[in-house]
Write a structure and sequence with these properties.
alpha/beta; globular; single chain; binds zinc ion; 8-stranded parallel β-sheet; TIM Barrel; adenine deaminase activity
Length: 348
């Protein structure tokens, strides 16, 4: 393993783009570009409250999590058939391959669709088929994580889990997303316990806009294996010590944090501080169509803004493999590719 790769800083952007990486925090509905929304609306005869692609894109000027979620759910309303879900996931996976993503663990929000009368089967089959085809055609490893919407009740989450169980082989875990404030993790303690008993992986959004206390309860009440976002952890020394000791990964999303004003600007993002504190932080795109960029845009912009180095790039890519739920043999192969790309960029 390269402890401190020496790379000409001028080559760092190219290295960030070329290095293999895992993306562990991507909401597939958040990858819907305005062009695809319009295409699907036309195919399905859905009327959109926007006159054009440009009008929809300009409506993306939201300023906080709730105003973002309002438009996010409106965009998802065009998804009706299995082919729609397939097309959405395929568009994301094609883009991820270009960014040298070798493993994608993709969140989906079934309640956004089942509440509109779309069946669980339609959602999961379309997404899963896109993952399988992408693996076969492009070599990217992709898996699905079913997320419960935390602004809904735990009973609703239980009902959603029951609907998904016939397809248990087609998703690897569960997560918790949507509006964080006012919906602490412990609200979902029983349904996560059930998922744990079923052998499903568990992750949860915590410590994005919410306090460090939500990260503690995601760990203790939900027994999650990763924290999505978690950037507020640095406010709590004891929490940082625990996350470092237990190697609990944080799936950080710099451009999302910037867009939702979690930090006033990217230069003040704490990603570098999280790494310096010994935490298993990773870089991800969250909702790339809405937040101004896919995973490589996130890497390029946060590195440019904070002055991180090739050593940080190495750490972030290697953390992404460590934190993924992929088989160990795959992780070893990806680490070998990472080493090979770094040695190409170090050998001058
Ligand atoms: Zn998210």
């Amino acid at each position: 393993m390269l402890a401190s790769p020496s790379v000409d800083p001028a080559r760092l952007p190219a290295l960030l783009q070329a290095m293999p990486k895992a993306e562990l925090h991507i909401h597939i509905e958040g990858s819907l570009e305005p062009e695809l929304i319009f295409q699907l609306a036309e195919r399905n005869g859905v009327r959109l409250p926007y006159a054009s692609v440009e009008a929809l894109r300009s409506a993306y000027a939201f300023s906080n999590l709730q105003s973002f979620l309002d438009i996010y759910y409106a965009g998802a309303s065009v998804l009706l058939t299995e082919q729609d879900f397939y097309d959405m996931a395929r568009a994301y996976l094609r883009r991820a391959v270009r960014d040298k993503v070798v493993r994608a663990e993709i969140f989906f929000d079934p309640q956004t669709h089942t509440a509109r009368g779309v069946s669980m089967e339609t959602v999961i089959r379309g997404l899963h088929r896109a993952c399988e085809d992408a693996q076969r055609e492009w070599g990217i490893s992709a898996a699905l994580i079913l997320c419960f919407l935390r602004h809904l009740s735990e009973e609703d989450a239980f009902a959603t889990l029951e609907q998904a169980l016939p397809f248990q082989g087609q998703f690897i875990g569960v997560g918790l997303d949507s509006s964080e404030l006012g919906h602490p993790p412990e609200k979902f303690e029983r349904v996560f316990a059930r998922c744990r008993a079923l052998g499903l992986h568990r992750v949860a959004h915590a410590g994005e806009e919410g306090p460090p206390a939500y990260i503690w309860s995601a760990l203790d009440a939900l027994q999650v294996e990763r924290i999505d976002h978690g950037v507020q952890a640095l406010k709590d020394e004891a929490l940082v010590a625990r996350l470092a000791r237990e190697r609990v990964a944080l799936t950080v999303c710099p451009l999302s944090n910037q867009k939702l004003c979690v930090f006033p600007d990217l230069a003040q993002h704490n990603l570098r501080a999280l790494l310096d504190a010994g935490l298993c932080a990773t870089v991800n795109s969250d909702d790339p169509a809405y937040f101004g960029g896919y995973i490589n845009d996130n890497f390029l912009q946060v590195f440019a803004a904070t002055g991180m180095t090739a050593a940080h790039a190495w750490q972030l890519a290697s953390n992404s493999f460590e934190a993924s739920f992929a088989p160990e043999a795959d992780k070893r192969a990806w680490m070998a590719r990472l080493e090979s790309v770094f040695s190409d960029y170090s050998a001058l």
